[in-house]
Amino acid sequence: MIANAEALLKPLTIKGLTIRNRVMSTSHAPGYGKDGKPQERYQLYHMEKAKGGIGLTMFGGSSSVAIDSPAAPWAQISVADDSVIPYFQQFADRVHGHGAKLMIQLTHMGRRTKWDTENWFPTISASARREPASRTVPRAMDKNDIRRVINSFADAARRCKQGGLDGCEISAAHGHLVDQFWSPSINERTDEYGGGLENRMRFGIEVLSAMREAVGDDYVIGMRMSGDELIADGLSHEECVAIASEYAKRGLVDFLNIVGGQARDHIAHAISLPNMSFPVAPFLYLPSAIKREVEVPIFHAQRVTDLATGARAVAEGHVDMIAMTRAHIADPHLVKKLMEGRDDDIRQCVGAGYCIDRIYVGGDALCLQNAATGREATMPHVIEKANEFRKVVVVGAGPGGLEAARVCAERGHSVVLFEKDSVPGGQVNIAAKAGWREALSGIPRWLFAQVQKKGVDIRLGTEATEAAILAENPDVVIMATGGLPNAGHAKGHEHVVSTWDVLTGKVEPTGTVLLYDEIGGHNAASTAEALAKKGCLVELATHDLQIAQEVGTTNQPIHLRELYKLGVVMTPNMELIEIYPEGNRLIAALRNTMTDAEEERVVDRVVVDYGTLPVEGLFQSLRTRSVNDGETDLDALIAGQPQRWSGQPGFALYRVGDAWTGRNIHAALYDSLRLCKDL
Amino acid sequence: MIPAGTAFSLLILALAALAAGLVARRVRLWKSGSEARLVSAVGRTISAVSADKLIAGLKALPRRYLVDVHHVVGRDPYAARMHALAAGGLLGGSLLALAGLIPVLGMSRLFWAVVALAFAAALAGGFMVGRRRLPEKPARLSGGRFQRLPLYLAAYTGGGLLVALAGVLPPLAPQALLASFGWLGLALAAGGGIGLVLQIDRGPMRHAFAGAAHLVLHPRPGRFEGERATALAALDLDAPRLGAATPADFPVNRLIGFDACIQCGRCETACPAFAAGQPLNPKRLIQDLAAAIEPNATNAAYAGSPYPNARPVAGVGGPALPLVGAGAMIHPDTLWSCTTCRACVEECPMMIEHVDAIVDLRRYQTLELGALPLKAAPPLMELRYADETAGRPLAARTDFAAGLTLPLISARPAEKGPAEVLLWLGEGAYELRYGRTLRALVTLLLKAGVDFAVLGPEERDCGDLARRLGDEATFQRLARANIATLARYSFTRILTADPHALHALRNEYRAFGGEYEVVHHTAFLDELAASGRLTLGALGQARVTYHDPCYLGRYNGEIDAPRRLLDRLGLERLEMERSGKRSMCCGGGGGAPVSDIEGERRIPDIRMGQATATGAAIVAVACPQCSAMLEGVTGERPEVADIAELVLMAVEAAKLPAAQVLA
């Protein structure tokens, strides 16, 4: 049992609203909105957290109050008209049915959005300063804009109340319209809304006053804001404290939800959503400082990945509610598990940031290590027992194999898990060797602990052979043998080494290294970082438009920051076409993908990342003996039906993860979960 | 009439006279105690010194001895046979031989044959006494004078046998030989008899008359009338001295109880603190108390097992000298090691009340000296200021139920009439682990449609901890405050999952005017299941063992309902080596967790070892203390689950198609 757990499990009452415990999830934009409404997928995602014991779940990050703040960019919610109210009612019923409270975030994004979408209205802000993150140049608001937006906020608050939501917050964080007025880095106005802090605070005060008037004093309204913008020309910590005190003193807010930093450009955005390179709870000092100055409850989220940290934050009085938003994406049942004394079963967020990155690369939030999150309609968070118990052999204890073994064991099947390595984890063990990516090892660690707990027959250090598999007399064989690095197709590719060779220490390059990347993921970037830290002079070249193009906005800037700091030469729009030795060095020929101009590099090593190719020898030799010729029934997989060969004499053979085709951890887990949940 | 026979009869007379003198000496020592008092089942005290009470006690003696004492002795059949032969033969033979002074009998061969038979039986008993102690004495038995007992017994009863045989055999053997037989027997009997009689003062024979007197004047006569009689005596807080500092502070009949001890060591075998290597041995404690009633007393004569890891004490005392302290007989750590589990009392064939003695001694330490163990003082301080052992707000007691419906009795509309049950939450409600049990219980009450309510912020600590730690003043204040609160509300019964609260509310509040029907949650859930208000599914084939809470099983006699309820869940129920009323404590009672006296092992580890030995996957508990103590055991071990949690699983399993819940 964790220390201070009782501090988390105390109810909190705000204006007659009693939240059952101190754990919450903050409003965010998972990309689940449909037609501007929180529909089935969105609601089930939050209902799962309610089922899992959360006290308060807030949804709809950046929900729009006005039609010139389009909801489209992150598939968000529009509260700009009454048509959303029935969805709120349905949503509230679902969450209340499991004892949790439900709130929404309302905002006008100001300049932090797109003009070329939805209604094609100009974006607006305090002043006409471009936002680097959205690449938008807004129009400075006039009095009519101000009046209109204030009314929109008031109308939106009324819709929340009518929709049965327990409360709402306005976003005055991450560079939204209210804090665009506050921040001297944006607000250059000379009227009563600009200049001194008192004037800069005016717009927000008018917004909240209008909302109060619309919903009455007994409805919970809070505000999300920064405790320090952490930029030279932005809001200082002292100004943030002054704003918090002033708004609280006026009775405008019933809670304050404090973050550190802002998000106006890529690196600021990455810092405000700290990934695994940051320590846990890096900005806890900010809500703590504000809590000393105000009477209203303080909420806080920012990389609070484990309950022990959350419990400490509450017990020591830094905050009143601890928000564990990404922690709930990894495990929506974490409070329930704590209450049931099963805290060892909590799947802890590793801070991969895949959920947020997905919103920018892919469009919907998914968890790197939990394939059920965001798919509650089809994928179970709690695996049900099967009606008929089978014998399952899983080959490979990487993430895909571990997940297959875990799900099958939860189904009640008798599972044998072969792993030729002496430790489980597969390729994650290699990825975790790269500097700040170490926390990835938490993914197989949890899976392996579950597999052990569920009584899987684990055979580490044992290579599966055809005979060994058949000796188990299995009903199902799942090949999760992963992949091996692809050396690529450039001429002379026998002279290259892989990123695996570097990270595992099989080769230890020195001198000048060309690292060529055709995947655009974390792999090449983190290997480049590792090489540079060992003293190599590294050039990272890629066919893509930029380095680590497939990595999203909370991780890519961190990679770039580190690579710049280490002097890695970054060369996009290049293709590796040939490698050949000259003396004891290598010549690498590159082709500019735009101009076709060829360039040569004289290097000591060429390291490449072309991803992996499946390890499928055993699969090929078993397929003819299997009842299904190793084929997966894709239609059944999508329909959530058992595979059509179930119950036939002999064994059915399937493959998952990189053994099927090289992709990523999430893909491997999803392959396994959706196959095994119906076995 | 044979000359040796007559002489033997006279010897017995002489021995009886000597014994009477020694008894009189002992009785004079008893008189240093305060007025004899009886404790009622609910802890009210009344004077025992009245002719009718004495006569009633005397009349009850045979039954108390033959039924109640032998019920306990008989748990060890060897000891029972041994005692029946030795004591029966010795007393019977001696009384008969005395009758040999009557000429008709003295001349009868048949008479001497009967005497011979009695002494032969006694000799066999004496042989059994020796057999038990030789060649190696079991650790629980005392040595010293006790080790010489078989010798004296053999000499006296063997001598008696020879004398009697000399009266039986005349036609069969030469007169001279028989005469020498008789005189040899007489000499043996005289030697053995004197040895035995001298053991009346300080040796094993003391238990015979002190035990009889103890049965007549037993401080808890209810124990012989089928009552559990376990409520502590209410203390008169206006008394000039609170609790017991010296032997003289104990009532006479309690001093008699100490003298009744036969040092059989059954208590030390049962004592959890002794097993854990803490400095408590109930046998030694009673011996120290008994020794201390003599002027210039020392503990030197004691020859049983010591207090484990004994703290050094001077080992001296007297009727008016302090009992507790490094310069006295008993080290304070000995007092504070006790979990008040009553296992010693349950095992004692002489019906001695060890726990009452310990609590009386603690009362003096706490109320008069303020001399508590370091970590036991803060909870009492918090209780005094905050009515709660950790100073937490009383309103936070219901935090565990946030999100569940938990009706407050203060918010109950008058037209609804009395609540079916008032749910007493207890101290466990503040604990995370136990909160889970209470959530399960509340969920079950809601599912069964029970009309219940809680006191919420009006529920104070029940006072159990304060009372066991000797802080009777705080206990009485809390009891009166809770009784006043309860008086304002209308309910049929009190329901609680905490056996300590149950004991306080059901038994100990009565002395202060609080009379309630109190039901433990296991009994209540069993009722709900029996009446069909809860539908239970089967929990699969899991093996479970039930750990009896001391305050439920031993203190309140409730050992069947929890088992009945567990059996309804379709689990395979296994019994531990010690269970029911003879169960072993978890270590959580009597304030022991806060007193925290150092030993070699932890009591819950020992208990969990017994649970593990059954092969059970689950230890079912029914008490917040047991739950906390057993959950604290580390390493590979069975899961700890309150019965309420298992019942909830079964209720939920009833809805599932496949009953694979615990598989």
UniProtKB/TrEMBL annotation, chain A:
CDD domains: OYE_like_3_FMN. The keyword ATP-binding does not apply. Its cofactor is [4Fe-4S] cluster; FMN. InterPro entries: Aldolase_TIM, FAD/NAD-bd_sf, FAD/NAD-binding_dom, NADH:flavin_oxidoreductase, OxRdtase_FMN_N. The lineage of its organism: Bacteria, Pseudomonadati, Pseudomonadota, Alphaproteobacteria, Hyphomicrobiales. It holds the Pfam family Oxidored_FMN. Residues 8-344 form the NADH:flavin oxidoreductase/NADH oxidase N-terminal domain. This is NADH:flavin oxidoreductase. Residues 391-620 form the FAD/NAD(P)-binding domain. In the N-terminal section; belongs to the NADH:flavin oxidoreductase/NADH oxidase family. It comes from Ancylobacter radicis. Keywords: Flavoprotein, FMN, Iron, Iron-sulfur, Metal-binding, Oxidoreductase. Gene3D superfamilies: Aldolase class I, FAD/NAD(P)-binding domain, NAD(P)-binding Rossmann-like Domain. SUPFAM superfamilies: FAD/NAD(P)-binding domain, FMN-linked oxidoreductases.
From TrEMBL, chain B:
InterPro entries: 4Fe4S_Fe-S-bd, 4Fe4S_Fe_S_CS, Csal_0991-like_N, Cys_rich_dom, HdrC_iron-sulfur_subunit, Helical_ferredxn. Gene3D superfamilies: Alpha-helical ferredoxin. Keywords: 4Fe-4S, Iron, Iron-sulfur, Membrane, Metal-binding, Oxidoreductase, Transmembrane, Transmembrane helix. The chain crosses the membrane at residues 6-24, 84-104, 110-130, 151-170, 176-198. Residues 252-282, 326-357 form the 4Fe-4S ferredoxin-type domain. PROSITE patterns: 4FE4S_FER_1 (PS00198), 4FE4S_FER_2 (PS51379). This is DUF3483 domain-containing protein. It comes from Ancylobacter radicis.
